[in-house]
Amino acid sequence: MKASHDPQRIERVGETGLKVLWSDGHESLYTWRLLRSSCPCAACREGGEAAPPAASAGGSLTTALGPASEVKPLELQPVGRYALSIRWSDGHATGIFSHEYLRSICPCEACRPGQFTEG
Ligand SMILES: [Zn+2]
Ligand SMILES: [Zn+2]
Fold first, then answer.
1. Which of 22, 75, 83, 94 is in Cβ range 3.0-4.6 Å of 98 for a Cys bridge?
2. How far is the CA of 39 from the centre of ligand 1 (A)?
3. Any idea which of 37-41, 87-91, 94-98, 110-114 has the lowest mean pLDDT?
4. Where are the domains of the chain?
5. Residues around ligand 2, an ion, CB closer than 5 A
6. How far is CA 81 from CA 8, 40, 93, 101, 105, in A?
């Protein structure tokens, strides 16, 4: 059994985000905003694309997401041995972040060459 993307340790980093230490020694730091916007659940995936016109016509109830940076996790819950479930302060709780998915969205320079061009 190959363990390519097993987290050795998952810990919250204050209000900043989530830190994951992987079995291969790699370390990932995800901001909460990144995780929330990367939510893999069907609702978020569909919402990110073309929204049905009916929804935008009537209500201004869920216009945009407000200050997205304010969204915080209320609860982190391991799902079996392969994933992490996050319950958010905006009430969303259906996103399951598999370890493999988490690793794939690691925002560090090594994983995302060229994404961050500081300076
Ligand atoms: Zn979602
Ligand atoms: Zn990385």
1. 83
2. 5
3. 110-114
4. 1-46+70-110
5. 106, 108, 110-111
6. 11, 18, 18, 14, 19
User: For the chain, what's the residue count?
Assistant: 119
Model pLDDT for residues 29-45, shown as the tens digit of each residue = 999 999 999 999 999 98
Q: With beta carbons less than 8 A apart as the criterion, state whether 97 and 83 touch.
A: yes
> Which fold does the domain 1-46+70-110 belong to in CATH?
NE0471 N-terminal domain-like (3.30.2020)
Half-sphere exposure of 61 (CA within 13 A, CB side): 4
| Helix or strand (DSSP H, E) at 57 | helix 53-57
How far does residue 27's CA lie from ligand 2's centre (Å)?
6
Given a contact cutoff of 8 angstroms between Cβ atoms, the answer to whether 17 and 86 are in contact is no
